[in-house]
Design brief:
With 120 residues, the protein is an all-beta fold. It has no helices and 11 strands. Helix content is 0%, strand content 50%. The N and C termini lie far apart (39 Å).
Length: 120
C-alpha cells in the first residue's frame, strides 16, 4: 500500500522549533514534487511550502517565509519541514502530499497529518 506518513509534530512554546518528516512507503518520492499543507480548526487548508522533484526549487507562503524550510532526501525517501520561531497561529494539523505538479493543490498521495500546537 502506497502512503505518506508524517511525524515530528507536538506541543511547543512560542519561539520554539520543530522538524516534521514525511516518509513515503510503497513508492519512491524521487519522482514527485512535494507540498506541505496545514489546516487549523475552522479554517481552510493552506499550502505553506512546496519543493521540486530535485529539491532545487522551493516556495513558501508569506505566513511562514523566513521561518520554515523545506528540504528533501530522496535517498531516504523523506521530505522535511524545519519550523523555527513558531507562533500560536502556526497551530494546525500539518500534511504532506505528493502533488501532481510543482506547488499544486491536487495530489496523488496525502499523509494522515500530524498535529502541531504552539502554546505557552
Amino acid at each position: 500500500q502506497s502512503q505518506l506518513v508524517e511525524s515530528g509534530g507536538g506541543l511547543v512554546q512560542p519561539g520554539g522549533s520543530l522538524r516534521l518528516s514525511c516518509v513515503a512507503s510503497g513508492f519512491t518520492l524521487d519522482g514527485d514534487p512535494i507540498g506541505w499543507f496545514r489546516q487549523a480548526p475552522g479554517k481552510e487548508r493552506e499550502r505553506i511550502s512546496c519543493i521540486s522533484v530535485e529539491g532545487s526549487i522551493t516556495k513558501y507562503a508569506d505566513s511562514v517565509k523566513g521561518r520554515f524550510t523545506i528540504s528533501r532526501d530522496n535517498a531516504k525517501n523523506t521530505v522535511y519541514l524545519q519550523m523555527n520561531s513558531l507562533k500560536p497561529e502556526d497551530t494546525a494539523v500539518y500534511y504532506c502530499a505528493a502533488t501532481n505538479y510543482y506547488c499544486s493543490d491536487s495530489a496523488r498521495y496525502w499523509g494522515q497529518g500530524t498535529q502541531v500546537t504552539v502554546s505557552s
